[in-house]
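User: I'm writing a short methods note and want a consistent example. For Fructose-specific PTS transporter subunit EIIC, I'll paste the sequence; you return only the structure tokens, no commentary, since I'll be parsing the reply automatically.
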Amino acid sequence: MAEDTTYDLIAATGCPTGIAHTYMAKEALEKAAAAKGLTIKVETHGQVGIENEVTPAQIKAAKAVIVAADKDVQAERFAGKPMVSVGVTAAIKDPEGLIDKALAAKAQGELSEEVANASSDNSSSDEKESVGHIIYKHLMNGVSHMLVFVVAGGVLTAVSFLWGITSFDSTAADYNSFAAMLKIIGGIAMNLMVPVLAAYIAESIGKRPALVPGFVAGMIAITGLPVSPETGLIDAGGAGVGFGFLGGIVGGFVAGYVIVGLEKLLSGMPKNLDGLKAIFLYPLLSTFITGLIMLGISGPMAAINTGMMSFLEGLEASGPIVLGLAIGCMCAFDMGGPVNKAAYVTGTALLTEALQAGIGTPAYNFGTNFMAAVSAACIVPPLITAFAVIVGKKYFSKEDHDAGIVNIVLGCTHITEGAIPFMTKNIWPVMPIMMCGSSIAAILTILFGVHDPAPHGGFLVLPVVDGWYLWLIAIFAGVLVGGILYVIFKRNEYHKNGDKVVE
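Assistant:
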């Protein structure tokens, strides 16, 4: 379509990874709009950047706006328009309802001229974001930018182990210079994880000015408060105790809201000094204030971080069944949503510590085993659907069958979201079935002692997985049990419907 084409509705979608949810929401909204006889343009914020970008003219001409995102999609562009703002999965589960809400917001805005004038320019509809979703959106904006660093750094580090587990060590018998370079590059990428996380949480809140204090907060989170070992006093040349991933999250929010506060504080300055604020006052003052806050809370944050790690280690001490059950249920609960991301991000944080601790250490063994369990649990759900549509083909519609076949590729590459359309049609009992399969895979992975030093990639990283054949057995067991249960459910549903496929 031509660039000046107008649409009834404008939408923007974005998920933390920018791989699956983003485009599934786009497709769902487009189908729902077409069914209602409406035109819609959906802008996607994926891992490759912004695609199908909407223009100011199209925003102005649209009747309403739908924002279905768990990351920053520059929603301020839509100020003054009737708008519904929700998480990305809401557009997948109920696109028709979102469209109805957006159009209802438009209708309410037209009730009377007095009502319209009573609303502020920035008030777009009765559909306000909850505080929880706002916090989650800021957090996931940081996570989405962080994940690519984790994946790139983790995989490069893992590949370096192909030459030997100590091949990066110049004093070791299996030393290889190329492996050492891979580990150095991968390590640098992994070390950027927390600063990038903090910076883009801050950027989501305070926009571009918040990047500087955000990066500084992230760096403080990994270095901690430097203290002289001799005097116990703050010493720029001393060693600090970092407070890691959790500190990066806190630092990102601190930096973002410091910028918001400074913007309000300095709003009375003359307009011709805006350039001075942007290039000098904001970075200087925000870095100073954020830095002081971060250094001030470094002690408590280090204690909290230590406590969290002790809790996870306590889960490990509880046995593989308890730990595997927790991992499996979290990963399959919402297929790439907040709970799934909590498990995955925890895995990447533990993996980062594992790679920094070094091969053979308790931290390495726990972190890589935890990551292997998380990866197995994330791989299983889409493969369950693939198994089910192949074994129980007559119980599924052609659309579901085709989606299930595609899920072979998605599952093998660690993209859990492919199972979402199947779960949304029958949350009960499909969700418990997926959780059961994922839990079996996670428990067996822990029991078998599989170690995965790569944070993503699915079966593409099999060469670097220690115990890869046992890992495949664990995953296949989860898929087999989950797949059989799913086929049984669909068969019963089929016969209850008079031997007809339930759409």
